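Student: Send me a single protein entry containing the residue sequence and its fold in token form, directly below this note:

Tutor:
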Amino acid sequence: MNGNSLVVDTNILIYLLNGDEYVNNLLRDSSFHISFITQIELRASKKLNSGERNEIDILLDSCTIHHSSNTISRIAVKMKLAYGLKIPATAIDLNLPLITSDFDFRKVEEIELIQLEN
């Protein structure tokens, strides 16, 4: 998967932060795109210490963060109505594969899914 651009789900970034060698090797040299929601999810835990927050900031600095737009909002509404999900909107908007360990996204036909069974 080296050299690819991917939309990366929060759970995959958590695996990276936890030192998962398989995920690290799988994603080596790939460029990461994330939604602003992923950024919020990573930073919002009250349980993080300052070192962990610093690691998250370093990881997020290496990602391209996509903020909400009218297009993404429309896609999110469409996904919520069709599948009960709103998260894959960024992957659909960017026309990039989504890597996740969330099995709920398997039913979304509009995205190329890279399913990690970790």
The chain has a mean pLDDT of 90. The domain at 5-115 is CATH 3.40.50.1010 (Rossmann fold).
